Automatic annotation (TrEMBL):
Region span, G2: 54-58
Identification of the protein by name: GTPase Era
Chain segments carrying region G1: 28-35
Domain KH type-2 positions: 224-306
Gene3D superfamilies in UniProt: 3.30.300.20, P-loop containing nucleotide triphosphate hydrolases
Length: 320
């Protein structure tokens, strides 16, 4: 009898909202604002943003912790028409990610008309049946309300044409922090019920080495993107605390290789009398020190990995 009444009582009480945890990924053309949005949601710089397309090579996860939910963001590289083996690998990574996540956010910048690049992705999305898809209109701070309204209609239209049912269409501005929290509110109900998958405080499970490599790569590309668009890869070879340092003055030695494709590119990276490479080192060292909270000695070497974008062995070595 007692057990019975307990059961009745518990079912009549307003059930506390179940905790949810799961994965979302943002897809979209290069420069659509995926990394910036990830950072805005997570509230700290974890993914690398840049003014130039295709900087997000590695899958970087940011984690939104809430009392009632944990939203894990998987930031995929941009899907693009493959020209090299690397391009194909990247697209495979993207598709695999799409099939695994609980919700896909398709980012479309408010300030650019829907183009062939967006349609290419949308058609791929239409083929993925399982995951709900949310259309996210990014960079709304750059347009007036009329342009935004037109974009929302165009996205709705594209969905109808391609047979994609948008679970939501949400306008956001990551840089002006508009509707970013709302986006999280809309994504969370699409996650499965379950306990947190990561301990609180974790912002990313990306190994530090990869983030450090990305800092260096970003600094190395700055100002020379036209000359070396996708020809740089960075691998952190070693990270060791310097021996014989006083406990209150630690120093971390980091050795990293900057890989280029051709010997002729060496000069571009290194610069006259090594000046440029030195600047790359200074800039990325500052970011690494901020990330790790410890002084760093950064040792950079420029190496030629011939045609690395086309060679499976090299790609594996570089972590693809
Ligand atoms: N004004 C404005 N600019 C934004 C916003 N979000 C992103 N941007 C800018 O758009 C550019 C591209 O943003 P990213 O976040 O790197 O784009 P992405 O989609 O991750 O790019 P890839 O890594 O190349 O795929 C950067 O210069 C950002 O500063 C926004 O809400 N408003």
């Amino acid at each position: 009898m007692n057990a019975m009444s307990v059961r009745t009582q518990s079912s009549e009480q307003p059930a506390e909202a179940a905790h949810r945890a799961g994965f979302a990924c943002f897809v979209g053309r290069p420069n659509a604002g995926k990394s910036t949005l990830t950072n805005a949601l997570v509230g700290q710089k974890v993914a690398i943003t840049a003014n130039q397309p295709q900087t997000t090579r590695h899958t970087v996860r940011g984690i939104v912790h809430r009392p009632d939910a944990q939203l894990i963001l998987v930031d995929t590289p941009g899907l693009h028409k493959p020209r090299t083996l690397l391009g194909e690998r990247l697209n495979d990574v993207v598709r695999t990610t799409w099939a695994e996540v609980d919700v896909i956010g398709f980012c479309l910048p408010a300030n650019e008309k829907i183009g062939p690049g967006d349609r290419f992705i949308a058609k791929e999305l239409a083929g993925i049946r399982k995951s709900p898809k949310v259309a996210i209109v990014t960079k709304t701070d750059l347009v007036d309300s009329k342009t935004l309204a037109e974009q929302l209609i165009a996205i709705d239209q594209m969905g109808k044409e391609l047979g994609i049912e948008w679970a939501q269409i949400v306008p956001v501005s990551a840089t002006a922090n508009k509707q970013v929290d709302l986006l999280a509110d809309l994504l969370i109900p699409m996650l499965p019920e379950g306990p947190a998958l990561y301990p609180e405080g974790d912002l990313t499970d990306e190994p530090e080495q990869i983030m450090i490599a990305e800092f260096i790569r970003e600094a190395a590309l700055e100002g020379v993107r036209d000359e070396l668009p996708h020809s740089i890869a960075v691998v952190v070879e070693e990270m060791l605390p310097r021996e014989d340092r006083p406990a209150d003055k630690p120093l971390l030695d980091i050795h990293a290789n900057v890989y280029i494709e051709r010997p002729s590119q060496k000069g571009i990276i290194i610069g006259p009398k090594g000046k440029r490479l030195k600047e790359v080192g200074i800039k990325s060292r500052r970011q690494i020190e901020a990330l790790l909270g410890t002084p760093v000695f950064l040792d950079l070497h420029v190496k030629v990995a011939k045609d690395w974008q086309r060679d499976p062995k090299q790609l594996r070595r570089l972590g693809f």
